[in-house]
């Protein structure tokens, strides 16, 4: 067990919160993940109208290429990152298949809908399936070629990664990909990103790495910092440490210059009873501080002055997500569009309070909820990501803490992996 770090004076925490509230820019441009594992959501057209009229969100990320969603954002000024589901990767890995895929899934909607990026699969590398892994980079390349041929060269191609891709993530300067995947998959993938000027997409979640002792470090609140003895950098937030671990892994392969974008990050507003650090105020602190941090242009200690395009997870609470309570409570909004918390992205309020929300027409609500639960994961899959935490079921305990030098060397990529097992974000192809 880690020692309890010295608590910052309460006044300092309070002052920090006030500072956060006062210092958020009045208009924040931000992306959001629009997941639909729910049977309570309004139709995409109402969601698009809501985002446009009531929020400063100008980018959405969707987990498929649902035609209703793509149509809904036509002419909205909101750009869309679409996902080619895992099941389409084989088709995409050959140019003829990629051409057909672009003709049927993209051409009917672009450029009326500003499709900015296509994610090829979701977190393929964190749950390696050797046939998908072998096809991933070829699929990215042929999709990119098919888009160029169709005249859609503004649409970029990437694939999102859970931080389970890292064999070593602490200290950040020691970050590296799993050997076997580094030269075979990540080097050619990063080469593709460099050549096509597309971002390496990662999903950092300090939520899956914090303990009671590291809550302030995870939330960007004042804390004693965590020291990287190699670089002599004192990390004061876990997000920077996670991003720098990714950077170090890329840089080790010679691709430190490739852009990084954040496909998902967030903080839930509810969890199992007794879990410290979860609730609307904690979520608002994390997301508010994160948005301020990524838009500040400050970058991270190893990536000074970089900006990261960021998609918050998530737009709505999703009642049909399996797993722990937190899984159903990542949303900034409830399905009726009422905010769970506000981090400064709402606008259009009248002086008397709320402006009317778009009408909810229950008769036309589409049900996108019939999605499969994730594939079961077993221990042989888990072993591929490193040793199990010593403490068995409480995986929180081996995260680095600001107070205990000894625990700083404990690897926590396995924690990220184990947590990502329960953070279920698997989506099946809806448009078969
Ligand atoms: C499309 O979206 C991208 C990325 O958000 C943005 O840079 C670009 O200006 C948008 N294009 C149009 C025509 O709105
Ligand atoms: C790996 O992916 C392929 C292609 O989608 C699929 O047919 C196969 O069943 C998957 N294998 C495993 C072990 O999940
Ligand atoms: C790290 O930074 C924090 C906050 O600025 C400071 O309180 C702490 O003393 C620093 N620790 C080291 C080892 O430099
Ligand atoms: C665990 O997964 C491996 C690889 O996917 C598989 O070969 C094995 O049969 C699975 N074991 C169980 C108990 O499901």
What layout of secondary structure does this protein have?
Blueprint: H1 10-23, E1 30-34, H2 44-54, E2 57-62, H3 67-72, E3 79-84, H4 89-92, H5 95-105, E4 115-120, H6 130-149, E5 156-158, E6 160-162, E7 166-168, E8 176-177, H7 182-196, E9 200-203, H8 215-218, E10 226-228, E11 233-235, H9 238-252, E12 260-265, H10 280-295, E13 310-312, H11 379-383, H12 413-422
Parallel strand pairs: 1-2, 1-13, 2-3, 3-4, 4-5, 6-9, 9-12, 12-13
Antiparallel strand pairs: 7-8, 10-11
The structure holds 2-acetamido-2-deoxy-beta-D-glucopyranose (NAG) (4 copies).
One 2-acetamido-2-deoxy-beta-D-glucopyranose binds at residues 87, 90, 129, 131-132.
Please provide a written account of the structure.
- Residues 1-10, 17-26, 350-422 and 424-432 have low confidence and may be disordered.
- The chain is built from 12 helices and 13 strands.
- It is globular and about 55 Å long.
- The chain has a domain at 28-166 and 179-212 and 258-347 and 354-384: Alpha-Beta Barrel (TIM Barrel).
- It is of the alpha/beta class and 432 residues long.
- It has a 9-stranded parallel β-sheet with strand order 5-4-3-2-1-13-12-9-6. A two-stranded antiparallel sheet has the order 7-8. It has a two-stranded antiparallel ribbon with strand order 10-11.
- Helix 10 (280-295) links the parallel strand 12 (260-265) and strand 13.
- The structure holds 2-acetamido-2-deoxy-beta-D-glucopyranose (4 copies).
- Residues 397-406 have a biased composition (Polar residues).
- Its EC number is 3.2.1.39.
- GO terms for molecular function: glucan endo-1,3-beta-D-glucosidase activity.
């Amino acid at each position: 067990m880690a020692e309890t770090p010295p608590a910052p004076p309460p006044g300092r925490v309070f002052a920090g919160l006030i500072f956060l509230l006062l210092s958020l820019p009045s208009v924040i441009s931000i992306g959001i993940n629009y997941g639909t594992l729910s049977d309570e959501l309004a139709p995409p057209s109402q969601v698009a109208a809501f985002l446009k009229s009531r929020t400063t969100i100008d980018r959405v990320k969707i987990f498929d290429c649902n035609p209703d969603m793509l149509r809904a954002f036509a002419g909205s000024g909101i750009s869309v990152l679409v996902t080619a589901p895992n099941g389409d990767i084989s088709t995409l890995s050959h140019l003829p298949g990629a051409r057909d895929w672009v003709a049927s899934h993209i051409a009917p909607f672009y450029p009326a809908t500003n499709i900015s990026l296509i994610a090829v699969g979701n977190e393929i590398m964190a749950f390696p399936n050797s046939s998908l892994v072998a096809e991933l980079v070829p699929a990215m390349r042929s999709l990119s070629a098919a888009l160029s041929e169709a005249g859609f060269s503004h649409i970029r191609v990437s694939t999102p990664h859970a931080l389970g891709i890292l064999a070593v993530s602490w200290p950040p300067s020691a970050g590296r990909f799993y050997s076997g995947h580094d030269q075979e998959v990540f080097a050619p993938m990063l080469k593709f990103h460099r050549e096509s000027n597309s971002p390496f997409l990662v999903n950092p979640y300090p939520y899956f790495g914090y303990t009671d002792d590291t809550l302030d470090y995870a939330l960007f609140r004042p804390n004693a910092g965590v020291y990287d003895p190699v670089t002599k950098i004192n990390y004061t937030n876990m997000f920077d440490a996670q991003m720098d671990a990714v950077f170090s892994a890329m840089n080790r392969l010679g691709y430190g210059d490739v852009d990084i974008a954040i496909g998902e990050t967030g903080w839930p507003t509810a969890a199992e009873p007794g879990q410290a650090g979860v609730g609307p105020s904690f979520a608002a602190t994390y997301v508010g501080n994160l948005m301020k941090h990524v838009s500040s242009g400050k970058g991270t200690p190893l990536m000074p002055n970089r900006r990261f395009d960021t998609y918050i997870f998530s737009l709505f609470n999703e009642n049909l997500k399996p797993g722990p309570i937190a899984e159903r409570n990542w949303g900034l909004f409830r399905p009726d569009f009422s905010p769970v918390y506000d981090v400064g992205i709402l606008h259009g309020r009248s002086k008397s309070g709320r402006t009317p929300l778009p009408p909810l027409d229950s008769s036309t609500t589409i049900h996108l909820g019939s999605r499969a639960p994730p594939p079961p994961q077993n221990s042989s899959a888990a072993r591929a990501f490193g040793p199990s935490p010593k403490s068995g079921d409480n995986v929180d305990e081996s995260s680095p803490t600001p107070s205990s030098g000894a625990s700083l060397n404990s690897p926590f990529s396995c924690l990220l992996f184990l947590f990502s097992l329960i953070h279920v974000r698997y989506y099946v192809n809806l448009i078969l």
